[in-house]
Amino acid sequence: MSVPYLINSDQGHIPASQRIPTIAKPFVSERAKKTLDLVERFVEEECVPADAVFAQQIKEAGEAHEHNVAGRFESHPQVIEDLKKKAQELGLWNMFLPANHFKEGAGFSNLEYGLMAEYLGKSGVASEACNCAAPDTGNMEVFAKYGTQEQKDKWLKPLLKGEIRSAFLMTEPQVASSDATNIEMSMVKEGNEWVLNGQKWWSSGAGDKRCKIYIVMAKSDPNNSSKYKQQSVILVPADTPGVRIHRMLSVMGFDDAPHGHGHIYFDNVRVPESNMILGAGRGFEVVQGRLGPGRIHHAMRSIGAAEKAMEWFLARINDPAKKPFGETLSKHGIILERVAKSRIEIDSARLAVLNAAAKIDEGDAKAALKEIAEVKVEVPKMLMEVLDRAMQAYGGAGVSQDTPLAKMWSSGRTMRIVDGPDEVHMLQIGRNENKRGDNLRKKINAQQEKSKELYRKYGLKYEDPLQLNRISGGKSKL
Amino acid sequence: MSVPYLINSDQGHIPASQRIPTIAKPFVSERAKKTLDLVERFVEEECVPADAVFAQQIKEAGEAHEHNVAGRFESHPQVIEDLKKKAQELGLWNMFLPANHFKEGAGFSNLEYGLMAEYLGKSGVASEACNCAAPDTGNMEVFAKYGTQEQKDKWLKPLLKGEIRSAFLMTEPQVASSDATNIEMSMVKEGNEWVLNGQKWWSSGAGDKRCKIYIVMAKSDPNNSSKYKQQSVILVPADTPGVRIHRMLSVMGFDDAPHGHGHIYFDNVRVPESNMILGAGRGFEVVQGRLGPGRIHHAMRSIGAAEKAMEWFLARINDPAKKPFGETLSKHGIILERVAKSRIEIDSARLAVLNAAAKIDEGDAKAALKEIAEVKVEVPKMLMEVLDRAMQAYGGAGVSQDTPLAKMWSSGRTMRIVDGPDEVHMLQIGRNENKRGDNLRKKINAQQEKSKELYRKYGLKYEDPLQLNRISGGKSKL
Amino acid sequence: MSVPYLINSDQGHIPASQRIPTIAKPFVSERAKKTLDLVERFVEEECVPADAVFAQQIKEAGEAHEHNVAGRFESHPQVIEDLKKKAQELGLWNMFLPANHFKEGAGFSNLEYGLMAEYLGKSGVASEACNCAAPDTGNMEVFAKYGTQEQKDKWLKPLLKGEIRSAFLMTEPQVASSDATNIEMSMVKEGNEWVLNGQKWWSSGAGDKRCKIYIVMAKSDPNNSSKYKQQSVILVPADTPGVRIHRMLSVMGFDDAPHGHGHIYFDNVRVPESNMILGAGRGFEVVQGRLGPGRIHHAMRSIGAAEKAMEWFLARINDPAKKPFGETLSKHGIILERVAKSRIEIDSARLAVLNAAAKIDEGDAKAALKEIAEVKVEVPKMLMEVLDRAMQAYGGAGVSQDTPLAKMWSSGRTMRIVDGPDEVHMLQIGRNENKRGDNLRKKINAQQEKSKELYRKYGLKYEDPLQLNRISGGKSKL
Amino acid sequence: MSVPYLINSDQGHIPASQRIPTIAKPFVSERAKKTLDLVERFVEEECVPADAVFAQQIKEAGEAHEHNVAGRFESHPQVIEDLKKKAQELGLWNMFLPANHFKEGAGFSNLEYGLMAEYLGKSGVASEACNCAAPDTGNMEVFAKYGTQEQKDKWLKPLLKGEIRSAFLMTEPQVASSDATNIEMSMVKEGNEWVLNGQKWWSSGAGDKRCKIYIVMAKSDPNNSSKYKQQSVILVPADTPGVRIHRMLSVMGFDDAPHGHGHIYFDNVRVPESNMILGAGRGFEVVQGRLGPGRIHHAMRSIGAAEKAMEWFLARINDPAKKPFGETLSKHGIILERVAKSRIEIDSARLAVLNAAAKIDEGDAKAALKEIAEVKVEVPKMLMEVLDRAMQAYGGAGVSQDTPLAKMWSSGRTMRIVDGPDEVHMLQIGRNENKRGDNLRKKINAQQEKSKELYRKYGLKYEDPLQLNRISGGKSKL
Questions:
Q1: Which of C399, C418, C427 to probe by mutation at the B interface, max B CB count within 10 Å?
Q2: Which segments constitute the Acyl-CoA dehydrogenase/oxidase C-terminal domain (chains A, B, C, D) (predicted)?
Q3: Alpha carbon distance D55, D402 (integer Å)
Q4: Residue numbers in B near C253 (CB within 8 A)
Q5: Hey, which chains touch A, using 3+ CB pairs under 8 Å?
Q6: Of these four, A90, A202, A227, C333, which has the most CB atoms within 10 Å of its CB?
Q7: Euclidean distance between CA atoms A162 and A160, whole angstroms
Q8: Count of CB atoms within 10 A of residue C184's CB?
């Protein structure tokens, strides 16, 4: 990669490290800046061109196979392994593991990784190429944080090397999983084994034949008086007898092969006691811990996805071959207005993501709950709008396989659902904010009392005590 | 102010300096943090209670005067002078003048002032109390930046001391002033005097009898081949013969007395040559310079206005006396959703404002054109939405004189118009972003060429060159 | 009015009767069409020009009076009486009283009146000029529907003649009146009198010195086990001892004089038993009855208000004197897009209003609850958006006294609050719609069972019973 | 179909004919009402259950075929033929051809068909089952309106019988086809043949092996001075040598097999002169004629699609097995608000569609240009929002194959693009509306002149001529 030809051909291109928002600069080390520029080049020059190749390899694998769908999932495109090798040579590996909590990663802060993840978000294969792909990232954190040495040796090591992949099995089809206390998969102790029965779906990544280990949440103590202590998280190797992938789910018509989203049945699945993570009844603890930094990786990548949508948008509206009514679209005011709205929304959302990352770096994910929830809601909404504008500019091409927009829209739409639907996060933000209510009413009352004093001091008519009473909730005395 | 009673009564209040967004912290000095906390206390304990008093003093002055309207404008509430004295004692004076450009101010950066201005935005009188009120702030920058020593002595000094006020006269009723090249007021040299004829409106602050000096843009060279060199900016003392305030304009029914918005006639108004700012034909230069930091002061204060709307919103929805259908509004999910949306939008907008300020501090306002324009559009839109939600929660009280919301809405709405309507800024952002179009098309094409190579390398069928051609604008060859 | 000069000057003007939406035509009689055209001409030629005159007469009355505010409310502009005379001569009087329920009116259906009310909504004085102004319209319906002969003789007759005006006192400041069961004004029987104590606000119309009668809701039986039987509605002449207008409320800075919105204290106010409407404890019945057709009059007028905003919008964007960046605003694509959006929204909302009116005409207001609620929510939202676009096109003029837009915005905003805030109507619509839920789940299940049969019939693999179970709520059996 | 079991199981179901909006009732004959109820039952009881079967038949056909994709397109599900037979027996056939223009159809008005089409829109197979599917409907209108007797015999007859299908080839990938003057496919006369070269895409329906005839727009006279006379429309049988389906396009990941959207190459495709429609150079005329009623069929069906989304939405939020945080979703206020918004938007959009249909029935499609354009923009926007709310309520299921929502979203999204993107229609509406601008300015000026007279008459101060001048564009004279 000594001679970058792609970005060089983009005359006047300013490297990513020089486009860091001013306010984020103090948080970025020189080493991170260099890595950031490498990431940008790797993504633009190697990964984005590989996206189409990856898709074609999957497609041809499917066509070559007797059962097309199965073929799509059983293949593993060579291009991804070649990219992984290249990424490791460049030192672009495991950047996601935050320096202040883990020694296994590349030693960056969440904010630094956030800047890099933006670029990973511009390509479908880049995250995996750098071993920074969900759900492995969150799963590796679980192992690093809560795993026994044995568990680490067996699963974390090959995950960190990119040799295997993993899935996190939580959601279930028959209940409202947005409230995780509803999950029903049973988990019963028999001897020194746990026996699991039930079903899981939206088990993302389970379609990949390299996916070797499932981290599974199930109900181990259904009668516990605390509904947050009824669950455990346990390791289930994908090849354990009784585990059966019932079917793969599609997202707006895309099967996302070979990664995919599994609907999996568990029929008397037995695993040894030693597969338990952290301890029986501590499932919620594990899940909360997992959702730390992990929860904003999607947001970080979504900023990049929005930037990519913007690039395709701008490319189209300046296409000299496309002149409705005699002018390229860029000459139409409503198009420029949409460009401007998109620019404003992306830039604002990026700052929110970086601030959330900085807050996690400052303390931990718990301290940044509000910031993470805000970003969880704001970013996908922004992404959907930017994508919709770009799609509309392309007309038919925008919804078809000819641009990356439709696929990005499909993934982006799920961001409003995964890790809890928007509504749950909104409710949390709303309730948290609402706690200020009583103190604020007191403050406003005190300010109004002070006003009354000043009325007297300046000899003004004081007309009506109503306002104060109304705010404080008292009744007017006539 | 040794014993803060208001905020203390707000149990558990965390001082402003401890609520600075994580990502902004490296930019804030210890001195600024102390001042910030002082500003917060001064605003909450002194200024907010004075707002109602100020309104009542104006009202009674109007009623006491034969011509009510005139009376409202001729009065000057004593409370404002008392606050100014207090502010000076506390060292809260002229914080707006950025340290890196001016020695006359309090020595803060734009970002630091931005944090303070948020609090000023929570009260109608606070900005003036700290001598940080528009349009004086921008006008003082003009004097400090471009004024002759004589001009500085005569006008800047009393402005810095808060002894007089000023107005900036640019907009004209009979043309589309959103494009400043349209302004028509004529300015003709006769001997060593300039003679001005025409009219101006939305001359904010001109209603105040303490407003002594107008900075006026007029057309001095209508035939200049460059339409950006036809204008000059010149000083016109308010009491110059020929100047006549024709009428005061209202904003959504509010007259904003005594400050007000003047519609002013100029009838053979003569001023000496020495009143010229910077030089004849350099009007645009002055105006651009003025719009530097000044342009985001409104945005900074608007963040505070939004926070204040939020406070009233939260106070209401927790009012135990207000239970539609048996529950306080805070128990209704749609209300909490609105709280959450508001919180997300405010926090995101604040980061955008602070980043724009940081960018100005890093270089100058010119380097931050994009960031300023973004904030100019995003913030008032956010403010309107937050205010609307709060107003709706109050029902009738929300649109009446009983809450500050209606008045804040009225001012906020003008923010989408002043300093150029949103549309002008959107167009600028859109055009600027659009410049990337051609390079992006080239980049995407190069990436697609690289894909083609990879197809060959991996032995894949290469189905269709269409996509490349379409993006590049070429025609398909069959 | 033999020679219409205004509309004639609008070359090519197509009279209102010829612009009735196709789908509404079968509902409009020839007589109504003729009246509609007369209304249009009367409004455009007489009323709209009188609006500015009315405002000026109030203003000068205020300035001539020692206490300006009082003066504004005590005056009664002569222009309104002159218009009333003219309207009566033209036969444009009391068109609002629906033919199928009342003999006292002009004999039109609600749909026919709806078309006329659209034009009344284009002028501030037109409704009163035709004796079709709120709250008199609703109050006259109350008298006509529930009044005793004595009550009718005393109050309905002069109201129908336009000799006096009236107010409806329901909302109270200290409670959440959006839920009317919360109202607290007490009403105690002493001998053959009722004694009222408490306060009311947003008593619209109470500012007018011609307002002679209040229809008041109060709590006569606070301990009744049904919270819908605790209230009564009773007549209180405005000059009854103990009644005191405490103050007038403003709406976004407008006092709406002389009509106004009163905050009124009741201190031992005594009225005879015979003033009771319908009977003690039947207050809710009266209120529901009042909200029949009355509730959509606002919506009908709002369509006209939106059309007027559109007219001013179109006038401005084609003003040859206003060319930002060298072109009238109508040449800018984003402006035309806003015109188009407005046109679509207005036309769609009008159909919803007319359909609701047709549904009331078909049966009664109760049968049209859903349609009325829909219109109650949709129309003000539409009006606000159309107004906002027009305001923005005008820049400063749009928020000032120089266009009718700011005042219209102010009134329009209250439409989202009066007669119950949007949220209450949304909840009602939502709950009503939601009743279908269980039947729909059954239907979908039955459809899925039928699918299963068909799978068998056509020899297809039936993959998974999950979907059915999920929808029906059953649990998956493995 | 003697015993309807599905809808009967929906206790209290009110037949479609009794739920016609009041305002549309006068336009619906008794015969149409009976047919409407039959359509409802046929769709709910036969077609909706067949949708899943149709999908499965396609899927299995694909899996059974060596080349999966080809298999999906070459199959023709038996279920559709069985439904067609049933529909014909019930007399539900060709309802789309409007009675006032064509004798070949079922004799209904556009409004009557509009009510029926709503129900067809609730199932993926219903339109084809009743021979009312696009693009055949529009194509049949072309034949009926412009075809020679020979063309009618050869193509219209089998189309009316549902024996073959057809496609309309207009859009081209390499140009901005939203402006149809840009199309480039060449068409050269050689002897008594026309020779076509070029490519088309989004040729919907071309994937179906039963699609026998293409109606093709091409450039026959590229040098004609009128750019609206350069095009012709000509018939090209699908099996003509030189025609090649290059590939099928996907929509958000769906291939829409077997119907599909073709990208087709024309390589020296020769057809006889007699295949010309209407005459050389009259292509635009044909296209305009085709877009008459046809353009709102999509809108009609989209109302039904939205109602179906609503049904699934309501089914889910009342699912007793899905209780996030202890309550079914229907107990959450924000969900009910979304239900209410959806109900309001659907009902309003339906009225707009029916009014547009009534206007077409009253005159012709040309007279209803505005109404059709409005509906073209409003309806898909509404549909997208209703679908999005339903999808969100379902969480993962909403974007997967387990509900019909994702597929409906995908089709619905294209409605904002097909038959011209929204923006083109908005521009047309905006420009048309804008023509009123000058007359409106004159009217407002005349009204203001009249105000001035009244000021004099009533002896009021006339303060300022500015307003008049500003509106009229004149300059103020001082």
A1: C399
A2: 281-432
A3: 12
A4: 250-254, 406-407, 410
A5: B, C, D
A6: A202
A7: 5
A8: 16
As a whole number of angstroms, the distance between CA D435 and CA D427 comes to 12
- Please list every residue in chain C whose beta carbon sits closer than 8 Å to the beta carbon of residue B417: 392, 395-396, 398-399
Residue C299 main-chain phi, psi, to 5 deg? -65, -40
Q: Do D399 and A421 touch (CB under 8 A)?
A: no
| Smallest CA–CA distance from A323 into chain D, residue | D176
- CA A291, chain centre distance (Å): 10
Token code pair at residue D219: 């450039």
What whole-number distance in Å separates Cα of residue A346 and Cα of residue A327?
27
Highest CATH level, class, for D166-282:
mainly beta
DSSP letter for C98, please. B
Instruction: Per residue of chain C (478 residues), give pLDDT as tens.
Output: 443 455 555 567 889 999 999 999 999 999 999 999 999 999 999 999 999 999 999 989 888 877 777 888 988 899 999 999 999 999 999 999 988 778 888 999 999 999 999 999 999 999 999 999 999 999 999 999 999 999 999 999 999 999 999 999 999 999 998 888 999 999 999 999 999 999 999 999 999 999 999 999 999 999 999 999 999 999 999 999 999 999 999 999 999 999 999 999 999 999 999 999 999 999 999 998 887 777 789 999 999 999 999 999 999 999 998 988 889 999 999 999 999 999 999 999 999 999 999 999 998 888 999 999 999 999 999 999 999 999 999 999 999 999 999 999 999 999 999 988 999 999 999 999 999 999 999 899 889 889 999 999 999 987 654 443 444 333 433 3
Q: For chain A, what are the domain ranges? A: 6-133, 167-287, 295-434, 439-472
In chain B, which residues have their Cβ closer than 8 Å to the Cβ of A369? none
Q: Please indicate whether, in this complex, the C-beta atoms of D324 and A182 are within 8 angstroms of each other.
A: yes
SS3 call for D455? helix
CATH topology of domain A295-434: Butyryl-CoA Dehydrogenase, subunit A; domain 3 (1.20.140)
Report the distance separating Cα C74 and Cα C80, nearest Å.
14
The reply to whether residue D400 touches residue A250, judged by beta carbons under 8 angstroms, is yes
- Report the Cα A370 to chain-centroid distance in Å: 16
Query: How many CB pairs lie under 8 A apart between chains A and D?
Result: 140
In whole angstroms, how large is the CA radius of gyration of chain C? 26
* CATH architecture for residues C167-286: Beta Barrel (2.40)
Query: Hey, what are C358's tokens?
Result: 């047709």
CATH number for the segment(s) B291-434: 1.20.140.10
Cα–Cα distance between A382 and C228 in angstroms, integer?
Answer: 46
Question: Which CATH number is B167-287's, of 3.40.630.30, 2.130.10.120, 2.40.110.10, 1.10.150.530?
Answer: 2.40.110.10
The residues on A that touch C, with CB distances below 8 Å, are 173-174, 184, 197-199, 246-247, 263, 265, 267, 332-335, 337, 463-464, 466, 469-470, 474-476, 478
Residue B355: closest CA among C221, A358, C360: A358
Amino acid letter at C53? Answer: V
**Hey, which chains touch C, using 3+ CB pairs under 8 Å?**
A, B, D
Whether the Cβ atoms of residue D378 and residue D349 lie closer than 8 Å to each other: yes
Distance from CA of B19 to the nearest CA of C (A): 33
CA distance B372 to A118: 23
Size of interface B-C (CB pairs under 8 A): 139
Residue D270, token pair as written in the block: 């020769």
Residue C291 DSSP one-character state: T
CB distance A146 to A154 below 8 Å: no
Q: List the beta strands (DSSP E) in C302-378.
A: none
Predicted model pTM: 0.96
